[in-house]
């Protein structure tokens, strides 16, 4: 049985686990926001890998970060994690993506309520399982996560607030101004022009456009621009992706476009905050695209067409009017990114950019 926190006024201590890739973790922020807005307000700890920990520490819905050493860590590291989990005296565990190792950890830590999606044999370690059938890709991933959070609040008898709305990473307006000033100074950029960030890397897993196709896309967008507020293009890259950014930059520079390479940032957290300077972010379905989505920056994402990775399933969590998505058309190979109609994509992106320009730069 779980305690009646509403009656007692006590704040439950929750452990939320999303210990895989950056994009997956960013799509957990709406669920974390839902949990944090409940009454009584819970204390929220998350378990993440060291890679995404800098983002977890920036999340306004998180109170404490536990580092998951990963499957390949030695026994001492796993024992240390178990001791921390026991000492924290968690009231509930919510695993957004269940694995046997984490389920076994929660059971051994004595966490009384352990909730996860009802999938795979890992569910035997959980005493509260929610059927979702995510493989059907009927909903965005972040909505599946929010539904789990809402089920946990109901099970704990907590009073949920209204459904949180974007931005799920709310930053003060001054933060955007500071980042634009910083980048303008670094690259000698005019601040009164729209800034389009483009991330051509794939994070090692996501299917993406080739550098040549991205360069073609940018030129087609440019051909649809009118007036003095033509965009500036800023190319971003993750570790080991600099060659991809350079392969996009070279033909665009030769074509006379104003294109820049984002200078190295001081870690993932610094890179993420820099994205607040963008007016539009273009990328494949990668972690940086989902950071931009959490910031409610306008996004244009390029996705494969396979069922487990559709634009709907991995939709960014920004407002609908800030979101565009493109994938291979029906009848083409699910990973055939060359089949995406760049002319159509350029038109839709250019129209979105024009609407943003009118809102932000018309005054």
UniProtKB/TrEMBL annotation:
UniProt GO BP: lipopolysaccharide core region biosynthetic process
Record CDD domains: GT9_LPS_heptosyltransferase
Top-level lineage group: Bacteria
One GO molecular-function entry: ADP-heptose-lipopolysaccharide heptosyltransferase activity
Pfam families named among the record's database cross-references: Glyco_transf_9
Protein keywords: Glycosyltransferase, Transferase
Coiled coil feature spans: none
Keyword Cell membrane belongs to the record: no
Cellular compartments per GO CC: cytosol
Protein name according to UniProt: Lipopolysaccharide heptosyltransferase family protein
Organism the protein comes from: Halomonas alimentaria
């Amino acid at each position: 049985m779980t305690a009646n926190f509403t009656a007692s006024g006590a704040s439950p201590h929750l452990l939320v686990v999303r210990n895989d890739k950056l994009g997956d973790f960013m799509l957990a922020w709406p669920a974390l926001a839902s949990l944090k807005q409940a009454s009584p307000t819970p204390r929220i700890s998350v378990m993440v890998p060291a890679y995404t920990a800098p983002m977890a520490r920036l999340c306004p819905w998180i109170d404490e970060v536990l580092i998951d050493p990963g499957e390949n860590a030695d026994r001492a590291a796993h024992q240390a994690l178990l001791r921390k989990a026991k000492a924290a005296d968690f009231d509930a565990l919510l695993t957004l993506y269940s694995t046997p190792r984490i389920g076994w950890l929660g059971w051994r830590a004595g966490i009384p309520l352990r909730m996860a999606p009802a999938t795979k044999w890992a569910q035997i370690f959980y005493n509260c399982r929610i059927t979702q059938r995510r493989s059907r890709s009927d909903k965005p991933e972040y909505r599946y996560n929010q539904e789990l959070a809402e089920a946990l609040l109901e099970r704990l008898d907590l009073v949920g607030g209204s459904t949180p709305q974007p931005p799920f990473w709310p930053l003060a307006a001054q933060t955007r101004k500071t980042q634009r000033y910083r980048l303008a100074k670094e690259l000698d950029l005019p601040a009164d022009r729209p800034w389009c960030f483009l991330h051509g890397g794939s994070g090692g897993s996501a299917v993406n456009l080739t550098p040549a196709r991205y360069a073609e896309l940018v030129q087609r967008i440019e051909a649809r621009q009118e007036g003095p507020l033509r965009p500036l293009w800023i190319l971003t890259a993750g570790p080991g992706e600099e060659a991809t950014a350079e392969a996009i930059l070279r033909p665009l520079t030769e074509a006379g476009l104003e294109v820049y390479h984002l200078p190295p940032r001081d870690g993932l957290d610094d890179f993420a905050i820099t994205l607040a300077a963008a007016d539009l972010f273009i990328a494949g379905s990668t972690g940086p695209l989902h950071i931009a989505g959490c910031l409610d920056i306008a996004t244009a994402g390029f996705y494969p067409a396979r069922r487990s990775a559709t634009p709907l399933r991995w939709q960014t969590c920004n407002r609908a009017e800030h979101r565009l998505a493109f994938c291979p058309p029906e009848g083409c190979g699910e990973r055939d990114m060359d089949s995406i109609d760049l002319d159509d994509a350029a038109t839709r992106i250019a129209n979105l950019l024009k609407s943003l320009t009118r809102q932000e730069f018309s005054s």
